[in-house]
Amino acid sequence: MAVGLLPPHDLLPVSGLRLAVAEGGVRYAGRRDLTLITLAEGSEVAGVFTRNRFSAAPVIVAQRHLSAGTPVRALIINTGNANAGTGAAGMQAAENSCRSVATALGGTPESILPFSTGVIGEPVDLAEKISKALPVLTARLDENNWEIAAAAIMTTDTIPKACSRQIDLDGQRVTITGMAKGSGMIRPDMATMLAYIGTDAALRGAALQQCLQDALAQSFNRITVDGDTSTNDACILMATGRSLTKAVTQVDDPRYAPLCAAITEVAQFLAQAIVRDGEGASKFIPIHISGGRSQEECLQVAYRMAHSPLIKTAFFASDPNWGRLLAAIGSAGVGDLEVDLIQVWLGDARIVRDGARDPDYTEAAGQAVMAGEEIPVRVDLGRGIATATIWTCDLSYDYVRINADYRS
Questions:
Q1: What would the pLDDT profile of 209-244 be if each residue is shown by its tens digit?
Q2: Three-class SS state of 393
Q3: pLDDT value at 278 more than 90
Q4: CA nearest 250: which of 181, 312, 192, 203?
Q5: Residue 390 to residues 115, 117, 322: CA-CA distances in angstroms?
């Protein structure tokens, strides 16, 4: 069960975006595995995709369509089959899927963005399955379908991930709603995850893409479950422009900062929800590094800790084995670390100072922190003013079971 995470509720419609789900039989019969999102005329879309060299066919096609500059009419998403490692046949399937959706909605194939998630390397007949489901999908389109769409895009997730926020801008109410899926194969670059965030704000051009980049830097690119990067990761920001009479087109527009902050808040909630629902996770672990000479250095230390199976299994066992923390910090590749300056905390309990166990630390204090579902870890490197925070989870028996049985 996800750590401290409840099913989404009170999700708000975004004017200009409609969603629908259907059973396509992509991998399993009787499962809602197809999601269609349509965008009103005048909407703009920005996207960021995995940099894995084995990028899936839908990733390549979606990037190509976005770069063509054609206004995006719709997104089509399938679960059950990643359409990755499928060669020319997979590319044809992704392109034909876009063609089918474009025919049903009106428009060109370049106006459709495809997304897939599921098993890698399996042959796929997506276009045929999508084509058969399109009459149902188009008939079900509704602004209020965010919750069922969040459930339809799940794979090994145990709970849908979605949230909404509203802010007042220019005297008008702006809505942001987003959903994401992901539970395993989670590591920044993009961090398997798919994320879709919509707003009725008129966020345009370079400001739209920059806002997505800014939000990602503080959310999806600061999480890790197991250190593996998927072939299908994508994050899409859609702005319909229905709520603002004057568009935000530049980052120096005074409205950009509060709008991007609200979008970042949604992205952070979704990113942390992915970690809370990490495959087999029983602990949610924020790792905060301060006192670095650069943010990159802080992240280097944080990820070394987050990816240590020794640390992750100790957290699963609620064992305050702080020697494993020191070993990871010391092997993070920061060659000139002065260990006598480093301090380490579990929650509010300082366990290390002056390069050794804090004289005031007790095993009982560490055990009390480790017994909780959320275990904050703080490290002060004592060498600068840079900081960085990432979010991770523990490594449990269930992680092995889920991934050993994934294709069965």
A1: 999 999 999 999 999 987 767 888 999 999 999 997
A2: strand
A3: no
A4: 203
A5: 26, 24, 19
Matching residue, tokens 């997506």 = 126
pLDDT, tens digit (0-9, with 9 covering 90-100), for 119-156? 889 887 888 999 999 999 999 999 999 999 999 999 88
Report whether 282 contacts 394 (CB < 8 A).
Answer: yes
List, in order, residues 6 or more apart from 60 with CB less than 8 Å away.
91, 94
289-340 pLDDT, tens per residue? 999 999 999 999 999 999 999 999 999 999 999 999 999 999 999 989 999 9
What region, left, alpha or beta, does residue 229 occupy, with left being phi > 0 and alpha being psi -120 to 50 degrees? beta
Which residues are catalytically annotated? 192
Helix (H, G, I), strand (E, B) or coil at 195: strand
Give Cα separations from 109 to 91, 104, 263 (angstroms). Answer: 13, 11, 29
- Looking at residues 388-396, what average pLDDT do you find? 94
CB proximity list for 84: less than 8 A, separation 6 or greater: 54, 55, 56, 57, 90, 116, 120, 121, 231, 232
